[in-house]
Amino acid sequence: MTPDAKLLPSGLPRIESMEMRGIVKKFPGVLACDHVNFDVKAGEIHALLGENGAGKSTLMKILYGLYHPEEGEIILNGLPVEINSPTDSLNHGIGMIHQHFMLVDTLTVAENVALGLKSTREPRMDLDVVSARIRELAVKYGLKVDPNALVSKLAVGERQRVEIVKALYRGAALLVLDEPTAVLTPQEVEELFHIFRQMAADGHALIFISHKLDEIFALTDRVTVLRDGKAVGSTLTSQINKAGLAAMMVGREVSLSRERPDVTVGKVRLSLKGINAFNADGQQILKEINLEVRSGEIVGVAGISGNGQRPLAETVAGLQPVASGTVELDGQLVTGLPPARMFKAGLSYIPEERMHDGVVKDFSVAENLILQDHIHAPFSKGIFLDFKFIAKHAQRLIQAFNVKTPSRETLVKNLSGGNIQKLILARELARGPRVLIAAQPTRGVDIGATEYIHAQLLKGRAEGLATLLISEDLDEVKAMSDRIAVLFEGRIMGIVTSDEVSTEQLGLMMAGEAAAV
Amino acid sequence: MGKTRLNRQHLERLFDTLLPLLAVLGAFAIGAVILALQGVNPLEAYKAMVVGAFGSKNGLADTLVKSIPLLLVGLGIAIAFRGGVINIGAEGQLIVGALFSTYIGLQLGESMSPALVILLGLAAGALMGGLWGTIPGYLKAQLGVNEILSTIMMNQIAIQIGFFLLRGVMIDPAEIAAGTNIPHSARLTKAIDIPRFTDIAKSLGFTESAKDLGLEGWSKEIYGLLAEPTRLHAGLIFAIIIAILVYIFLWRTTIGYRIRAVGLNPHASRYAGIDVKKNMVLSMTLSGAFAGLAGAVEIFGLHHRMFEPLAVSAGYGFSGIVAALFGKLHPLGMIPSSILFGGLLVGGDKMQRAMQVPQVLIQVILGLVVLFVVSTDYFVRRRQNRRVSVTSRADDLILAAKTIEEVTNE
Questions:
Q1: By three-state DSSP, how is residue B106 classified?
Q2: Which residues are within 8 A (CB) of A10 and not within 5 positions of it... i.e. 6 or more apart?
Q3: Are residues A224 and A288 located together in one domain of the fold?
Q4: In CATH, what number is assigned to the domain containing residue A184?
Q5: Looking at the complex, does the CB of residue B270 fall below 8 Å from at least one CB of chain A?
Q6: pLDDT tens, position by position, A87-143
Q7: Of the candidates B5, B265, B272, which has its C-beta nearest A29's C-beta?
């Protein structure tokens, strides 16, 4: 079982070229893929770019055998093949690296890699053989992985490398990389790209899915853009620029820069002093947090996922109990009060996990728009909901915030991610807040909707809203914020003026390596 | 394409609506095989069942009488389900409701206006049932105790408390005097019986029997049902009014809105400042209250005395769950579903007598119906989840990722 062999572990020939030809996939009401052509060759990194719902994941799921296309064929090494299940695609040497890691925390790296594979000496385990082979792969591709390490002890970047090793170990010759950089620091991204280039140089074919235009240019050889289920263009990456790609994706010119007009900063609206907090396991998740946000100001919070962003937001929202310290909203001391009181004090909160925490998917658009405010007039009289007003309110917000929905009675689960985010934004901004916490407001949202959400946040800023913008997208934080607080392991590493800091500096602070200058 | 999509959606909706009926037919099909193996003609047996339940005024009256507790219990079950908790304790809640309302009825007797005593008795039943539901609700909200287990345990406690009281302080003094010591209470005074349909008809002036009027066929049976002496009592009208009120409560009030929000997504509710724990307890309290109310209505409308707890509850605490699922957990849908299920219970009895099949066999067939109905609910949910995953992309990804992992780890 060597990676250079012409045959895969399954005995099938190694992928030299893959072509998807005329793929059509229909869902009730949607043409998810409309005669899409896509191809990739060994040694090449091909980017697949498109807004949410453009058909990227459908196309990749067809390649992975999860969906069956109505029309079209998949051609490997010049021969049409049938891929009916993930097992088929694995046998053909197609591997997928998911955004969400699929590892068992309580097992070691080697055990995770061996999981589900036949041992060389059944029924006994052959972890030593597996470990040796992992080390071999690690050296070859520059993947720093210790086979004996417990997965629960690994950082996010390391876990991702384990996923890659897993795919390579299983003999994947074509890898689909689904937004692999979402959870990494800029430095880690650079390392990861190095690994990908090495893999391509070694004859692997890579499909790279990303929203981030910079990464497309930094890494890929070719790029194919999907829009509304159609492949609208395919070109060498070197022959196109950012603006061109963005326009192709959205179907119109989009502005990629964010103008932050000068706004007079007002009084302190949100003030956190000496906040310490612990999670259910007794681990300290916030350490001595001091932070102020003023009227007319956007303060960005940067950091690698899981360094205290969520507890920080939940502290302000009254969802995270604090061990010590004080929270002030618009001059009122609100430490330890329940969420309903925070909202009353002028807080609006766009939670990070919007499908999970932001909306009730089986409620209609109108019902979701009154989640906090149904309890008082004008949405209800006594204990009875005022449906006339609720309907009017919904109609107004749908129009004002450009939410694309068949009607206000449509269940939210039938809307796209970007529209759900617009719906939440509409709900939170229409409440007339004085403080807004926006956690990952544009994650997984397409460029068009992102542009819109940013414009709304800037509009709020101009009107004197104090915004805490928590995001893992450094470009977003830098473009939108007046000041940036960097979180590392629950501590603020420093608060910097966003126009005076470089991405490299931020990256180092995010890694906990340097304090503010 | 547009046209076919529409048709497909319509078909799916039709299918979902008809699914409970299909489930019953499926259960009957298997039941038919079992009946045939017993040497009974299944068609005749089922005919006896349907005719027994719906074919005469007495059959219909019995069916409707049984549908009353089924509907009331089912309403409570539906509120719990909508609020995201599962109440398997309706049996116990019904029993304590029946016990307490009997006590109130015995105590108040004819001391005040009958209507007021009945009302107080029903309130007492609801109160006690509500308390019986609150306990597991509170344990779930505060300590994370599984409400399925705790409600089942509460059933046992209720049954034993019932025997304890009926053999002790609540026993009919006549039983002690006669030395028979059968554990039941004295009969409530007739003045506080919930009026029967026949009494209402008489007070409205319909004193002739169907025969006197020369009615034939269906009109004879219907007139008989409404005006001639049967066991059918005004609890039916009461239960239907309650069902409409529950509908208004769940869909038109802020409290109902919060209960549904918590049931559908406790996380988003918490993030929106809704007190999830409080609403969880509230839905259990209300759920228990409706079961307790069912118990009280059984006492005042039908039995007029408390006797063996399990004979009073008669499994309504469990069959009410099925009636609720059968009605798609919708208060109005549950009106026909309780009647249908009441018919199954009555028809089963009639079939047993007509065809000389063992009682156990009837229970097997009813059990099959329960099993089929409950599994179709699961089936619908699963399909809905799948449909969601196609439309909501984030979930789709996670689902796909998990699927892949499962497959690769095989």
A1: helix
A2: A90, A91, A92, A93, A171
A3: no
A4: 3.40.50.300
A5: yes
A6: 888 889 999 888 778 888 899 999 999 887 888 887 888 899 999 999 999 888 888
A7: B5
